[in-house]
Amino acid sequence: MIKLNPLIKDQFKLTLQNYHTSLLNPPLSNELDFIDRTIRNFNRLNFTVGNQSLRSRSKKIHLTPMVRFFMSSNKPTTVEMGDLLFVCKYFLNGSLCAHRATIIQAKFTKAKKKSWKIDTSQFYFLTQWPCFSMVRPRSNKSYYIDPKAKTWSTYGFVGSNAIRCPLYYSAERILYHKGGIPPTKSFSFMIPSYAGWDSGTSFFIKFVQGLIGENLLVNTAVKALVDDLYIMAGWKPDPPGDLEWNNKESENEIFGIVEFTVTVKEREE
Fold first, then answer.
1. What is the pLDDT, as a whole number, of residue 183?
2. Distance between the two ends of the chain, CA-based, in angstroms?
3. Which of 33, 54, 182, 240 has its CA at 20 to 30 Å from residue 188's CA atom?
4. How far apart are CA 127 and CA 120, in angstroms?
């Protein structure tokens, strides 16, 4: 894995601090507000030091991607995929050498006592990842991902009280505390007041360092889904082709994509 230049890392940490502050004032109003601010913050980062650079782009997809799958019955179940897709890519001398991703499901809360409710069907999808198809936008493709990294799907609180102590929990950690899939249509996951960052899913700085998320070069099925989401956003999948940094706005967008790209060109001796 490419090691980030310390100066670039410091610049990125400052960006994260400013982003965190932007989520506090004015207070977040809902999940869509959180998505909007996240997309705006990471729209066009461009840090370059010597032969290394860290860039970002972000965009929202028109409407929320909806997926269909089967649980325990013959009746298909349809749920939304999530709220945000974070992708981190590393290019060495122009070649993609590492590629990771994480899907984020955000839950808005105003309470100091942090809890959330997630529909059982969506929780099942984001933890078990059964074979599924995309129904919005409509597609005939089927996906069977079987991710090896449970951090491929991550849950996080958003809201004034929640943001003051950012909390992101991997599907693996939730399953550990709940002891499996909840039998009811929804559940509350209580977090103790002393809890801070989940060390397994503090996806910002650790994500850029390549410490979490599914390695898409290993899991080609995950990469296929990410590439299709890129196409929905009007981006070209990698590789082949040059990176495009266009980001045209449109209305009625809910699902967001944030991409970080680290490029390194080795010096010729």
1. 54
2. 22
3. 33
4. 10
In 50-167 the beta strands, taken as DSSP E runs, fall at 52-62, 66-70, 76-80, 84-92, 95-108, 132-136, 138-143, 153-158
DSSP states along 91-110:
EETTEEEEEEEEEEEEEE--
Which pLDDT tens digit goes with each residue over 59-87?
988 778 899 999 877 889 999 999 999 88
Task: Provide CB contacts within 8 A for 66, sequence distance 6+.
Answer: 78, 79, 80, 81, 134, 135, 136
Split into its structural domains, the chain has a count of 1
**Could you report the per-residue pLDDT of 159-191, keeping only the tens digit for each?**
766 655 555 566 666 666 666 655 554 555 554
Note whether residue 189 is domain-resident: yes
- Spell out, as residue ranges, where the chain has pLDDT lower than 70: 1-2, 111-117, 150-151, 157, 160-213, 239-253, 267-269
Residue 135, domain member (yes or no): yes
In a domain, 1, yes or no: no
3-class DSSP state of 78: strand
Question: Cis bond leading into 240, ω under 30°?
Answer: yes
**Quick one: which of 137, 128, 114, 131 has its CA closest to 255?**
137
232 in Cβ contact with 34 (< 8 Å): no
**Residues of the domain holding 172:** 6-264
- The neighbour count for residue 5, using CB atoms within 10 Å, is 19
- Is the distance from CB of 76 to CB of 130 less than 8 angstroms? no
CB 30 within 8 A of CB 108: yes
For residues 130 and 142, is the Cβ–Cβ distance under 8 A?
no
At residue 248, the 3 state secondary structure works out as coil
The pLDDT, as a whole number, for residue 19 is: 80
Residue 199's pLDDT is 36
> Is 26 inside a domain boundary?
yes
